[in-house]
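Hey, can you fold this one?
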Amino acid sequence: MIARDWILDVLAELELWYWPIFLWELYWLDRYLTARRAEHRSGLVGYSVCKKGRIYITLQAFADKPDPNDWTAFAPREPWKRLSLDISDVWKGLDGREPQTPARQIACGMSNVWRITAHAPLNLIPP
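Sure. Predicted structure:
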């Protein structure tokens, strides 16, 4: 986006009959910058105005291309928006019968894990 203050400063410096040339050039500069931003190639662009209202690009350094392995392609930026707003889901028991407190849920969950896990004897062999 081209700053409004810069445009007004340039118009104050130009002679009145060069204003249409400058505004026409400004329109095309804005279209050019918008197209570069759409291609993710905007980078750093420097431009200046001559006494006759023409805009010249004096510096153009392209930005790096976006990373194809950006984490936002695989995970949302705002994961909390996908959370359920129904807080009763948190307090349901593991089997769905009755509501339980979080401490009770952890205790039930640990007991279920201990039932499934087979314990192996630990044999220590000295070096």
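The mean pLDDT is 76. Let me know if you want another pass with a different chain boundary.
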